[in-house]
Amino acid sequence: MDLMNRVCKPYLDKFMIVFINDILIYSKDEKEHEEHLKAILVFLKKKESYAKFSKCEFWIPKVQFLGHVIDSQGIHVDPAKIESVKDWASPKSPTEIRQFLGLAGY
User: Fold this and answer.
1) Cβ atoms of 91 and 97 closer than 8 Å
2) Which residues are bridge partners to 70 per DSSP?
3) Which segments of the chain have a pLDDT < 50?
4) Could you give the CA distance from residue 103 to residue 47 in angstroms, rounded to a whole number?
5) Where do the Reverse transcriptase domain residues begin and end (predicted)?
6) Inter-CA distances, 70 with 85, 94, 106, Å
7) Which one, of 38, 79, 34, 76, lies nearest residue 59 by Cα?
8) CA distance linking residue 85 with residue 101, whole number of Å
């Protein structure tokens, strides 16, 4: 993770997020996205780091990344991640409240 963050530092948080060895490139429109993709691929080649194209996905309008769903409308919580919270019965005792808060991540 640290290596990829150091290598990709010029582009981090401008139009790219790195998590371990996953790279997410985001853009406002298709033209800008094409420019960002080219810039990253050329940059990685210069740094002698290469993308394994069999593991790459390009031009995806909706992506799941680190428990979130990202699309043209913005960033949303992955619905699968909140199912157990939605299905949890209303707590009726202090113990059940603590259990629910533990589940909810407080």
Assistant:
1) yes
2) 63, 75
3) none
4) 43
5) 3-70
6) 21, 36, 24
7) 34
8) 10
| Structure tokens that stand for 78 in this block | 């992955």
pTM attached to this predicted model: 0.67
Domain ranges of the chain: 2-59
Q: In terms of Cα–Cα distance, which of 25, 28, 81 is closest to 57? A: 25
Is residue 5 within 8 Å of residue 22, measured between CB atoms?
A: no
Token representation of residue 24: 């997410």
Are residues 23 and 8 in contact, defined by beta-carbon separation less than 8 angstroms? yes
Spatial contact of 23 and 40, defined as CB atoms under 8 Å apart: yes
Q: How far apart are CA 60 and CA 40, in angstroms?
A: 17
